[in-house]
Write a structure and sequence with these properties.
This protein is mainly alpha-helical and about 120 residues long. Helix content is about 70%, strand content about 5%. It has five helices and two strands, in the order ααααββα. It holds the Pfam family HTH_24.
């Protein structure tokens, strides 16, 4: 599956959490929603690095519409995971990126299975 497909899966997971959280502030589901939104942002940044490497923070912010401070944070996370590397002209992917993308499909499938399992829990009032 392409990274675009994975981003769409991420959107689906976020929507499921948002529906579960509709109309009420809930610390538990809100935290999950924030983490999924951050994952989506990291994947969007990685996608743009893959398509435009080398690419700098300001260009990434401009192309994605994501504020530069959030782009900087996502780049730092991706670099810590070994998926990108900093270079003088901007961020570039590493040899680990391709393996990560293969494993990502499996990870997203696991998240979807977990969400389906949550729906199976019947809580009565």
């Amino acid at each position: 599956m392409s990274i675009d497909g994975v981003i769409r899966y991420s959107d689906c997971l976020i929507n499921i959490v948002m529906v579960a959280d509709a109309g009420c502030e809930n610390m538990v589901t809100d935290k999950v929603k924030r983490e999924l939104e951050m994952l989506k942002r990291h994947l969007i940044i990685l996608k743009h690095v893959m398509e435009n490497e080398p690419i700098g923070i300001l260009k990434l912010a401009e192309e994605t519409g994501i504020p530069s401070h959030k782009v900087r944070y996502s780049l730092r996370v991706l670099e810590q995971e070994g998926l990108i590397a900093a270079s003088a002209p901007g961020a570039v992917t590493t040899e680990r990126t391709e393996a990560f993308l293969r494993d990502l499909d499996i990870a997203i499938d696991g998240l979807q299975e977990t969400v389906r399992g949550l729906k199976e829990i019947k809580l009565e009032r």
